[in-house]
Amino acid sequence: MEEKAFSLARSGKEYRKDAAVHLYKLQSQRIYKGRLPPMLEAVGVLDVEIDQTGWVKTLKWQRAPHHVPRVMAEIEHMVKTAAPYPIPKNMRQVTYTDVWLWHKSGQFQLDTLTEGQD
């Protein structure tokens, strides 16, 4: 049985690091290693609402990479299947925002944990 993870974050801004670490653990083979090149296939800004048990309630694009719908679908699928996320102990639910930096190889970094860009 998998042990539940908890987040002690008190805001969405604090929670986003816990969420990013969680996603990186589950998608380790998809993380782009090192500094990203100057041209990326897509950059998207996504709001993710997590309920009090760590499950995704809603996704809302603030800046959607509409020119690559398959990347949008892949990101949404990745976010949803990564649930349950760390349980937000100090909040009934939380909405966090992260920027997805998508390389043409299908690998990515999240702005929260990025190694930078040339």
**What is the mean pLDDT?**
96
Number of helices: 2
Sketch the major β-sheet.
4 strands, antiparallel
Order of helices and strands: EHEEHEEE
Known CATH architecture = 2-Layer Sandwich
Strand order of the largest sheet: 3-2-5-6
Structural class: alpha+beta
**Quick one: overall form?**
globular
Low-pLDDT stretches are: none
Helical amount among residues, as a percent range? 10-25%
Total number of domains: 1
Rg calculated over all Cα atoms:
14 Å
How many strands in all? Answer: 6
- Beta-strand residue fraction: 25-35%
CATH topology: Fusion Protein Consisting Of Minor Coat Protein, Glycine Rich Linker, Tola, And A His Tag, Chain: A, Domain 2
Assign the CATH class: Alpha Beta
State the gist of this model.
With 118 residues, this protein is α+β, with helices and mostly antiparallel strands. The chain has helices spanning 12-26, 69-81; strands at 6-7, 42-50, 56-63, 87-88, 94-102, 108-110.
Task: Explain what this protein looks like in three dimensions.
It is a single chain. By secondary structure, the protein is an alpha+beta fold. The chain has one domain: Fusion Protein Consisting Of Minor Coat Protein, Glycine Rich Linker, Tola, And A His Tag, Chain: A, Domain 2 (2-Layer Sandwich). Helix content is 24%, strand content 28%. It is built from two helices and six strands; from the N terminus they run E-H-E-E-H-E-E-E. Strands 3-2-5-6 form a four-stranded antiparallel sheet. Strands 1-4 form a two-stranded parallel sheet. The chain is globular and about 40 Å long.
Describe this protein with a few key phrases.
Fusion Protein Consisting Of Minor Coat Protein, Glycine Rich Linker, Tola, And A His Tag, Chain: A, Domain 2; alpha+beta; single chain; globular; two-stranded parallel sheet; 28% strand; 6 strands; 118 residues
